[in-house]
Write a structure and sequence with these properties.
Elements lengths: L15 H10 L5 H39 L12 H5 L1 H4 L2 H6 L2 H33 L20 E6 L10 H7 L3 E2 H8 L5 E2 L1 H20 L3 E4 L3 E3 H7 L2 H6 L3 E5 L9 E6 L4 H5 L6 E2 L6 E10 L18 E11 L5 H20 L3 E5 L11 E9 L4 E10 L3 H6 L2 E2 L10 E2 L1 E9 H11 L1 E2 L2 E3 L15 E3 L5 H28 L4 H14 L1
Parallel strand pairs: 4-9, 8-14
Antiparallel strand pairs: 1-11, 2-3, 5-7, 6-7, 9-10, 10-16, 11-12, 12-13, 13-16, 14-15, 17-18, 18-19
Helix pairs in contact: 1-2, 2-6, 7-15, 9-15
Subcellular location: Cytoplasm
InterPro entries: aa-tRNA-synt_IIb (IPR002314), aa-tRNA-synth_II (IPR006195), aa-tRNA-synth_II/BPL/LPL (IPR045864), Ser-tRNA-ligase_type_1 (IPR002317), Ser-tRNA-synth_1_N (IPR015866), SerRS_1_N_sf (IPR042103), SerRS_core (IPR033729), tRNA-bd_arm (IPR010978)
Family: Belongs to the class-II aminoacyl-tRNA synthetase family. Type-1 seryl-tRNA synthetase subfamily.
Length: about 525
Amino acid sequence: MTLDIDLFRPEKGGDPEKIRENQRKRFKDPDVVDRVVEADVRWRKLRFQGDELNRFRNLCSKTIAEKMKKKEPVGDDDTLPEDIINNPAENCTNDIIKALNVKQLKKLSTLITEHIKSSAEKRDNVELERNQHLREIGNLLHQSVVIHNDEAFNKVERTFGDIEAKKKYSHVDLIHMIDGVEADKGAIVAGGRGYFLKGAAVFLEQALINRALMLLHDKGYSPLYTPFFMRKDVMQEVAQLSQFDEELYKVIGKGSEKADEQVVDEKYLIATSEQPIAAYHRDEWIKPEDLPFRYAGLSTCFRQEVGSHGRDTRGIFRVHQFEKIEQFVVTSPHDNQSWEMFDEMISNAEQFQQELGIPYRIVNIVSGELNNAASKKLDLEAWFPGSGAFRELVSCSNCLDYQARRLRVRYGQTKKMNQEAEYVHMLNATMCATTRAVCAILENYQVEDGVLVPDILKPMMPTVYKEKIPFVKPAPIEQVETAKQKKQKQGHQKKGKKGQQEGTMPSAESVAMEVANVNINS
């Protein structure tokens, strides 16, 4: 995932200062732009050097053939000038080569071949260095993005429903009250944040998946059930470097199905179906008339959640494994088509939440909180009336050609003469992360004796849960409070008993008061 390298080349119409300013607006290091420019200058010099060396070697072969055809003497001396031996790319000329005898030309051709190999190795190393710096640089920001480094300054674009309602229980309590999760056994089996989804919660999750897929299918999105893991080299083309440390799970296995081969294969579990779908058209030329491609990705997602220690440790809102329906769209890079699609995709997510009857707000994410790929991101944050907070359910991003460039997903049938290749635009948006959607439904639809089922999901629920999911367990928070009250009561009882025991031996003050009272009455 990178910007177009020509944006760093003034002679190609690029403006490095514009990219430096973009980095500053992202609150990232602008000096990395200079490192890209410097490495690119070295890379282009080495590429030119390689081209010159190839040209000189071809000229050597052509000149040898001409001299042999003319039956010129081969020559006895193969000595070459020192400057040509040290740097044939800069010191050779056509005239010098044509003046050499056949023996010298053969020696020069061998020498040039060695220099070509050495130059190619240097060029590859510099290209690797340049591209590593290039991947640190974020996409160009859309003009509507709020420039700030604090998410508290995210701009609220619009709201839906009652976003001030208050209710009694949070999703942490409610999922237990409907007996929808077994967290203790999940932690034993899978470790921290592990869980078994149970009973009514399973049906609720499946209903959400079915409705989200159906809604997208009706809008022309093609469902894709994606692989759950990806090859390392492909994942490197769709994920940021930080994700490998903080988010992705590595899977090591045999690289061959043959029992006697010990090849090791390194793969990564996907964090979202966006990753495999982004690579779906890898190395392809896309015909303009075939676009846009609309996909509805369904997958289990796996995330390490490094850096979220202590956040949402209870309940199923933030877990290592969950199901998700993802919108992914490939568009033309022309005529503002990707930004029109951006509006369509967030509208799809809003329609789904409106069908569910979940209050929400749409927020424009500040520049400092965007990942490198996103030019702009809108989040849909649902109102959780039991928690008294907005929580993110949906992220919608336009990545322009940032992802497509590294995946080599090009626009058009083939590269035209003297024209730079164009790349498609790629966009992604959550439709439904199921565990989070379940949490939102639990809080918003809670009543005294259970959780009502949203009307849109009723046809997909079993008869026993079609109208309401009943509470079958007490609220954990009330059990904690009861235990605390019981402990306090026991403490008071112990103090009272101790006071009674001490009361059998009156204090000096109480005796004095009794004597005083007797004297007054008399």
